[in-house]
Amino acid sequence: MPYIITDPCVSVCDAACVDVCPVDCIHGPEDTEGSGQEVKESGFDPEGKQLYIDADVCIDCDACVPVCPVDAIYEESDVPDEWNESIRKNYEFFGLEAP
Ligand code: SF4
Ligand code: SF4
Q1: Model-level pTM?
Q2: Which is the closest atom of ligand 2 to the Cα of 73?
């Protein structure tokens, strides 16, 4: 079951998770194929933005979880109820149908 980036990432968006993902499946906040490059551009404003995990590519390795400074990443089955909507957002960012 893929991993999901939830609400605590919103407005933090530091892309620390991107650097440790072995299959390069974390993208956004705007480019569905980029690896968080927007975050590294000078003047980037993270307000209201987050990164997303491509469910079709994620191999459930757990490497991204410990590096997230705000504990925003969960295995899909463990996403807290209050952030359930994040599951749909992650799938839809990549044009995938949410389960
Ligand atoms: S669980 Fe592994 S493969 Fe999936 S997004 Fe995190 S680092 Fe990438
Ligand atoms: S490490 Fe956490 S806060 Fe940073 S971009 Fe990834 S999910 Fe968002």
Answers
A1: 0.96
A2: 7
Per-residue model confidence (pLDDT) at position 32? 92
Q: How many helices (H) and strands (E) does the chain have?
A: 3, 4
Q: Going by CA atoms, what residue is nearest to atom 8 of ligand 2? A: 9
Q: Ligand 1 centroid to 59 CA: how many Å?
A: 6
Q: What angle do CA 14, 19, 24 make, to 5 degrees?
A: 110
* Percentage of residues in the chain having pLDDT higher than 70: 100
* CATH architecture entry for 3-93: 2-Layer Sandwich (3.30)
Q: Report the nearest atom of ligand 2 relative to the CA of 64.
A: 1
Please state the domain extents for the chain.
3-93
